Amino acid sequence: MRYAILCYNDENAVSAWTKEEDDACMARLEKVQDTMRVQNKLGPVARLLPTTSATTLRKGSGEPLIIDGPFAETKEQFLGFYIVDCDSLEEAIQFAKDLAVANPGLGSYEIRPVGYYNTNEVDG
Amino acid sequence: MTDNAWIAAALQSARPRALSALLRYFRNLDLAEEAFQEACLRAVRTWPLKGPPRDPTAWLIFVGRNSGVDSLRKRSRNVPLPPEEQLSDTEDTETSLAERLDGAHYRDDILRLLFTCCHPDLPANAQIALALRIVAGVPLKQLARAFLVSEAAMEQRLTRAKRVIADGNVAFDPPDRQTRLERLGNVAVMLYLLFNEGYSRGHSDPGAAQMCDEAIRLCRLLLRLFPSEPEIMGLCALMLLQHARNRARIDNSGQLVLLEDQDRELWDAGMIAEGRALVEKALRHREPGIYQVQAAISAQHARASSAAETDWWSIDRLYQTLETLQPSPVVTLNRAVAVGKTRGPAAALTLIEPLSDRLYTYFYFHGVRGGLLTQLGRIDEAREAFCRAMALAGTPAEAAHIRSHIDRLGKPTPPSPLLALK
Lengths: 124, 422
Prior knowledge:
The complex is a heterodimer of chains A (124) and B (422). With 124 residues, chain A is of the alpha+beta class. Helices cover 30% and strands 30% of the residues of chain A. Chain A is built from three helices and six strands. Chain A has helices spanning 11-14, 19-37, 89-102; strands spanning 2-9, 42-47, 55-58, 65-68, 77-85, 108-113. Chain A has a four-stranded antiparallel sheet with strand order 2-5-1-6. In chain A, strands 3-4 form a two-stranded antiparallel ribbon. Chain B has 422 residues and is mainly α. Among the domains of chain B are: 1-102; 105-201, no CATH class. Chain B contains 20 helices and no strands. In chain B, helix 1 packs antiparallel against helix 2. The interface between A and B is medium-sized, with 28 and 30 residues.
């Protein structure tokens, strides 16, 4: 079963990290990913830019509404995701636990089974 | 991050919000600061044991407010306690406080705090120091080092600034739309001052990058509170796009590297992506402003994979827009650089000649002029312009850069025909 591990945290706190802290954290997370990568269980991984750079398209009856930023004011923001292919929910939870150890502090990981999946490749 | 570094990050990120709420309760900067300090101390003691609270900001406001009220009561032996209504409702719980924190007055709290620091009666230097001390929480020691003064002198400067603010009666009523826009404008100017203070210091000063980072962080915070203000998007983008080039603009020997000579591999791709996204978002509003246009110019440079691929026609057009928004000889001088690339050095020179009186003491004017004269083969005039620029150079890196231009011009033409015969 494929799972999406959705990362939520207070982006104010994440943006308070120094560059060194950020780099160190990314390096630790990279190591955790490696354990899944070597087992061929790791799919796409994405880290999103701050919500301030986001635009929301709100659907309605007429012309959709274009809004600056994310629509809802929340304490934690959606900051990024991993796609993993796990044998069990337990394994997906363990992966998220390992990520949490590598990136301690507040925030949460939502572990969500993937329904539709299409690995289109684009050049970034 | 190790061990409890996340607590430091949580406290740092909660600071502007918590401090601005405490300022609303106590209506006194010193008291609000003390209360926040006390709350942070308790957080460092209790969070590692009990785990983090659900909402760190609300926790800090709640604890800070209680400790502030406590210390006021203790002082009341000598000083009468302010009227109860000034302390606001002190009995509600952390939970109900957390609910209320989502309210719109949050925005006004932070805006008030930032606006307090850019009081028009304060000199730019004091505004920057105050914002770094109060909003960003930079320690006094570090601040004194950054501004090359003693700690005592820095403390005095801050005390004086706070007195100006206290005498100026910062308004605590929720601002109307017009006032809010004016405050936002002032805050934007202050943030850009803070950014430029860090930017102009270069790499030799370890605190410089921190000033730039703080300015960007505060601008993002502002943008989260006012997500649809195109000028705040523009300012955020402008700072990101400039800061993205930080590693490339000064070489290992401390020499300034011109934009066209920079190694674009060293540019920070994440900051550029964020900056460009913000510019695009801002332009959709069709309310151009000086920060948006400057950010759009920066974005034009950022999108070119090499200097040769720069779209100078677009940059020329953007500078023309900037000239109408903010007419200034410096903007025209910048446009001349773009004109030099598109319509040639003669056209550019024609554009800047009328500026020579007003920009006679401006380093870049003579640098640009020297460059254009060199291209036109007017070597003696070019040398004269470069020498003038060198005399005006503000940093050793600037002087060294101009010297390299002079060296490339070759030997001066001999002053008299007799000497030339030898």
